[in-house]
Task: inverse folding
């Protein structure tokens, strides 16, 4: 197995152990253009997951404070948003696994 393919696979699988740190390190350390491309793609997918979690957390904080005075409609909308963000994050994790397995099969 070539080390560049292994590093590329680990960039995608790092969603489980070091989502932002590992792809950044690989991007700056690797010499191969293909490895840098995979590190960049995996970093963008990890950032997308982080952004959805941040938006969900911030909206929960604001809605939790406002739900007491506004009512339950806004709270139910926020809960539906959480399910949507959870679904997006699940799709991101599955995409990372699929990309990592594809790279493993090409070796």
Result:
């Amino acid at each position: 197995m070539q080390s560049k393919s292994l590093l590329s696979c680990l960039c995608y699988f790092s969603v489980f152990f070091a989502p932002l740190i590992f792809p950044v390190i690989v991007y700056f350390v690797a010499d191969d253009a293909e490895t840098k491309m995979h590190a960049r793609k995996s970093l963008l997918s990890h950032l997308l997951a982080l952004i959805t979690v941040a938006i969900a957390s911030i909206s929960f904080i604001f809605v939790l404070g406002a739900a007491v005075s506004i009512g339950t409609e806004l709270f139910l909308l926020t809960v539906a948003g959480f399910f949507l963000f959870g679904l997006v994050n699940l799709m991101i994790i599955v995409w990372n696994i699929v990309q990592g397995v594809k790279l493993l099969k090409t070796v």
Observations:
- The CA atoms of residues 15 and 46 lie 7 Å apart.
- The chain has one domain: 3-106.
